[in-house]
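Incident log, support desk, overnight shift.

02:14 A customer reports that sequence design results differ from what the structure should imply. Their input is reproduced verbatim below. On-call engineer (initials T.W.) acknowledged and began investigating.
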């Protein structure tokens, strides 16, 4: 699993992240990453991509919101535009 975090959330730029939530516990890597990014988001990225390349919106599986203490809050927010690049069409 690839993770990406950002410090702030621009609702227009990231409008592809859906309101519908999914019961999914953050893995230890996401919890650790959240501590580095208070008041931001931690994104789960398709494994096809690495953190050193540009990530297209459809490669973001979803995200967890991070509070001011670097703690993940709320449920996983699913990206409705995510395309599983590893699945057969």
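02:41 Re-run completed on a clean worker. Output:
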């Amino acid at each position: 699993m690839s993770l990406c975090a950002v410090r702030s959330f621009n609702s227009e730029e990231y409008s592809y992240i859906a309101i519908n939530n999914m019961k999914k516990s953050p893995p230890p890597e996401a919890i650790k990453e959240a501590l580095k990014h208070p008041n931001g988001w931690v994104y789960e990225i398709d494994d096809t991509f690495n953190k050193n390349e540009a990530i297209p919106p459809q490669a973001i599986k979803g995200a967890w919101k991070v509070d001011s203490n670097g703690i993940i809050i709320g449920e996983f927010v699913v990206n409705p535009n995510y395309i599983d690049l590893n699945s057969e069409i």
